[in-house]
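U., I forgot to send this yesterday:
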Amino acid sequence: MSAQWMDSLDFRAPEDSGRAREWVSGRNCSISPRQLLGFFVSLSLLSLMVAGLCWVSGARLVTPFTLLELLAMAGALLAYARHAADRERVEFGPDRVVVEWECAGRIERCELPTRQTRILLHDNGLIVFKAGQAQAFAGRYTRAERREKLARELRRALIAA
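Result:
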């Protein structure tokens, strides 16, 4: 699953200086979990119909293998669906920077004071927000070659906050 930063679509610039600037990025998923469920149900019905026809015609071993195949596919699609809504959110307010990361429904949140926060590129390639000993990472869903540009944009937003 590839992902990329959606800053041009999801950047919301403040109307006045009291409001926050926010960047949201997420996985570039081509199918939603609801669409995925519909696909799996239709595929399962078709496979079970074929397995039923094979059962009636005497090929009894087709049905257990069909069930095994559907079980394996259900596991793979469940793993995909759990991560389809993964996202990152960076918000610059007048007194704090909020970096939030959601992975498989679990949310990690870090709040840093705006005046003490620095934005750097880390050795692992991600963008790091540092304030004293506290740090938070962003850029997981951004292509590596675009992270430096994103870090520059985030620095400008930090200065403007």
